[in-house]
Specification:
With about 600 residues, the protein is α/β, with parallel strands linked by helices. It has 2 domains: about 1-15 and about 460-598, Sandwich (Immunoglobulin-like), CATH 2.60.40; about 110-455, Phosphatidylinositol (PI) phosphodiesterase (TIM Barrel), CATH 3.20.20.190. It contains 17 helices and 19 strands. The relative contact order is 0.12.
Length: about 600
């Protein structure tokens, strides 16, 4: 009992390891790169960065900048780093992050060549049946780098205004103008690359025209804020000027595109995607007598081909109502639509070919599973020029999500997720888009963009191992700062262990492997426990990391998690910050890990 009290008492004296208490591997490396006085000079630090960390682009200026920053945070006055400072540098995620923190993918390819961070029902705060609709989840998503926001447009009860609502449910409603103003203010806070707004449109022509006017006005203000702040002090803009600035802010191609522009060329732009407006007579009657029959026919064909018993109502109701050209009843609305949306009606032969224009196809996760089993290669070919959006099945009323790898491995750019949850699949989505500086756009792997047989998708187990990822877990810290001291155990410090596993294509996926638990420690040290993961398709592999407190009486307590895209990992000793269940970064909790590719 006295031993336990001693440990509990000591845990309040300090919660950061000193340099001499660092894992043996860290101390050994420091000795190799420091002088006889135990100081790592700027020259030796540069040598460490190039040789051990494999940062070939590092310069003496890089090393000197690290020295200045570390010295600013400490009280030592040596001309280099002592062991304590070196250790604190390794645990500084601003200076020694495990991931590349800048945009480094080629951003000049057509937009269809990228995976895009995509939200589903972006306005919902909770479940799909009775939760509140608000601008708050939209803002939160934009701050996290989401680049596709979805809004469901419906007429209000008086049929004279537009609301955003998950139709046919008990969710609350929010005005469209309020959502667009929120988007206006936060569209480019996390990424300068284009923001796509997808409308699920349930409006008649008069309200569609109203949407176009509202979008124009909001786009003007966004453009003014984004690039032309000086205009704010000038006189109100007249209509002609509104149109001019609207064209600059909102991407509105003058004609149908056979290839969509690049993310780089669309920086600071807003792109609208929805189905084209339907054709109405002067009396307001919908002129599409064939639509119902074609929709029913397409539904029956899809049921026959794929054996599905639960097609989404969204797919059935909208069916072929997304077409076609010459729908001039609401030209204002048609003119703001940059990416035309359509639905899958039947087999692969109904994949929108539209050789004369780029289109966006939407399908549920269930429909995707059926299609890829039969027409996977055709779908990949379709996504090399057009867009594929996948959304959760209707039975996910709790706002859960699905395995995004099914969409990504078949080229789907917009794998739409409910962002308000906190389950495993959302963590994978968040981890995937930590890549490329967190800008929300990831260049697809080359095998999804060429004319090859896509063996990485259809026969990955037949491939040879491209690389083996070696992972070492050295230690962790920060729980005492971010958690109440009785959060894990009432009378003693926690018993932490770490888990790692790979998610990716089928042959790369692994079960969780774990370290041993470290008893009664706020500062667990696992002495570089090593794990090896042979990878055949590293381009789509992600490393899941979690820390838990062992509880012999029941379920182990959550202590943090992260998901890291393998292709973005930097080698050597790296600081890995951890996140809570929702994906919010802890202020202090982090791991010191090591990564190596062999």
């Amino acid at each position: 009992m006295s031993h336990q009290r001693f440990r509990l008492c000591c845990c309040f004296l300090g919660f950061k390891l000193r340099g001499e208490e660092a894992p043996e591997q860290i101390r050994s490396v420091f000795e190799n790169y420091s002088d006889e006085n135990g100081i790592m000079t700027a020259d030796n630090l540069l040598k460490f960065l190039k040789e051990f960390q494999k940062e070939n682009e590092a310069t003496i200026e890089t090393a000197e900048k690290i020295l200045r920053e570390v010295k600013r945070l400490n009280h030592f006055h040596h001309k280099g780093l002592v062991i304590d400072e070196f250790f604190r540098y390794l645990l500084n995620d601003d200076l020694n992050n495990a991931l590349k923190t800048t945009v480094h993918h080629d951003m000049n390819a057509p937009l269809a060549h990228y995976f895009i961070f995509t939200g589903h029902n972006s306005y919902l705060t909770g479940n799909q049946i009775c939760s509140k609709s608000s601008v708050d989840p939209i803002v939160k998503a934009l701050k996290r780098g989401v680049r596709v926001i979805e809004l469901d447009l419906w007429p209000n009860s008086k049929m004279n205004d537009i609301i955003v609502w998950h139709g046919g449910t008990f969710t609350s409603k929010v005005k469209l103008i309020k959502c667009l103003k929120a988007i206006k203010n936060f569209a480019f806070v996390a990424s300068a690359y284009p923001l796509i707004i997808t409308f699920e449109d349930h409006l008649k022509a008069d309200l569609q025209a109203q949407v176009a006017k509202v979008v124009v006005l909001v786009a003007v203000v966004v453009r003014v804020r984004f690039n032309f702040k000086r205009i704010m002090s000038e006189e109100p803009l007249n209509v002609q000027m509104v149109k001019q600035i609207f064209q600059e802010m909102l991407f509105c191609p003058e004609s149908d595109l056979t290839e969509f522009p690049s993310p780089e060329s669309l920086k600071g732009r807003i792109v609208i995607s929805t189905k084209l407006p339907r054709k109405y007579s002067k009396s307001g009657t919908l002129i599409e007598p064939h639509t119902i029959n074609e929709t029913i026919s397409s539904r029956n064909e899809l049921l026959s081909i794929h054996g599905s018993q639960h097609l989404q109502a969204e797919e059935i109701l909208e069916g072929n109502a997304d077409d076609e050209d010459g729908l001039e009843r609401t030209p204002e609305y048609k003119n703001v639509i940059a990416i035309h949306a359509s639905k899958l009606n039947g087999s692969k032969h109904n994949l929108p070919s539209h050789d004369h224009k780029v289109t966006r196809l939407s399908m549920s996760e269930e429909t995707l599973k059926h299609v890829v089993n039969i027409h996977g290669r055709e779908l990949i070919g379709f996504t090399q020029r057009n867009f594929l959006r996948v959304y959760p099945k209707g039975s996910r009323i709790t706002s859960s999500n699905y395995n995004p790898l099914i969409g990504w491995t078949h080229g789907a750019q917009m794998v739409a997720f409910n962002m308000q949850g906190h389950e495993k699949h959302l963590r994978i989505m968040q981890g995937m888009f930590r890549a490329n500086g967190g800008c929300g756009y990831l260049k697809k792997p080359a095998f999804l963009l060429g004319d090859g047989d896509c063996g990485e998708v259809f026969h990955p187990s037949a491939l040879t191992v491209k690389t083996t990822l070696k992972v070492n877990i050295y230690m962790g810290e920060g729980w005492r700062e971010d958690f109440h001291f009785r959060h894990f155990d009432y009378c003693s410090p926690p018993d932490f262990y770490a888990k790692v596993k790979i998610v990716g294509v089928s042959c790369d996926r692994t079960k969780s492997e774990r370290t041993k638990k470290i008893d009664d420690q706020w500062l667990p040290s696992w002495n570089g426990k090593e794990f090896e993961f042979p990878l055949r398709v590293p381009e789509l592999a992600l490393l899941l990391v979690a820390v838990k407190d062992h509880d012999p009486a029941g379920g182990d307590e959550f202590g943090g998690q992260t998901c890291l895209p393998v292709s973005e990992l930097k080698t050597g000793f790296r600081c890995v910050p951890l996140y809570d269940r929702r994906g919010d970064k802890y202020s202090h909790v982090k791991l010191l890990m090591g990564f190596q590719f062999v």
